[in-house]
Amino acid sequence: SQTIHQWPATLVQPVGSPLSLECTVEGTSNPNLYWYRQAAGRGLQLLFYSIGIDQISSEVPQNLSASRPQDRQFILSSKKLLLSDSGFYLCAWSRLAGGLSDEQFFGPGTRLTVL
Amino acid sequence: SQQGEEDPQALSIQEGENATMNCSYKTSINNLQWYRQNSGRGLVHLILIRSNEREKHSGRLRVTLDTSKKSSSLLITASRAADTASYFCATDARAGANSKLTFGKGITLSVRP
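Output (structure tokens, whole complex):
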């Protein structure tokens, strides 16, 4: 069966510090991968998606970047965090064959607080 | 702009009652999906209904889709306290091969024991 992991679960970082959030998927190959941010009481905002290694698409201009160094690893980074980067970050995957609007499977999320 | 918008924003019912949640969208879609999120957790996929389908069932869940009205409803029958969660609809805007899901803001469902 497939599983998706995210770490860390929670993170408190000062403004201006770097960020690295990691997501890995097990039990499948060639998945589509996604990074979302969820602000308190809000829906999900798609930040990045990837259809393959080193193939990253950004949905919104922002202070963040994403990388996919391996087929089942997706990393969200920032060189200098802003207060507005606080939120709940969710990684998800879907089957490549299903396309980007197929059923998505979400990780447990990372709660980021920037102080 | 938001593609899928849920209604109501919050719903409180007694255990055993049915819960009906609605989602409206603006553009043509390939499919519409409903997800559930427990507080502080990731989303869990509940059901996917395609644009050529009108109704789907999964256990105590019933989803309808009316493409002429650009709306969908999620019905949870015989609700339980464990159904307390936020529910999101997600649609794809049929913007070509790379059509992606857009999530609404969610409905907070509280089921009182």
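Chain A has a mean pLDDT of 93.
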